[in-house]
Design brief:
Elements lengths: L1 E5 L3 H10 L6 E6 L7 E3 L2 E3 L2 E6 L4 H15 L8 E3 L12
Length: 96
């Protein structure tokens, strides 16, 4: 599960995910490049800071986790988050 939220909202993402059954996740700090998000200030483009949260979860918990995250930090909240999932065929080094 991949969630992208405004910087500083990763705690809310993880809290919501854990309520729905996630056991952990990884946060990567990023910058947004969406044309609507980039602002100019004195001729310099300012890119908003983002948190990219990666969560590996069993297929049967995926939808509940995503719905919980979107309820807490979705597009209509201060976190303005988006969430999507990608299939994982293989993973090494993960403790069950």
């Amino acid at each position: 599960i991949v969630t992208i939220v405004n910087s500083g909202f990763f705690d809310q993402v993880m809290s919501a995910a854990k309520k729905a059954g996630a056991t952990g996740g990884t946060v990567v700090h990023a910058r947004g490049l969406g044309s609507k998000e980039a602002m100019k200030y004195l001729g310099i483009t300012i890119q908003p800071e983002k948190d990219l949260v990666l969560i590996l979860a069993p297929r049967d918990r995926k939808l509940a986790i995503m719905e919980s995250i979107m309820h807490e930090v979705g597009l209509n909240t201060a976190g303005t988050g988006i969430c999507f999932s990608l299939p994982v065929d293989s993973a090494i080094g993960i403790i069950d």
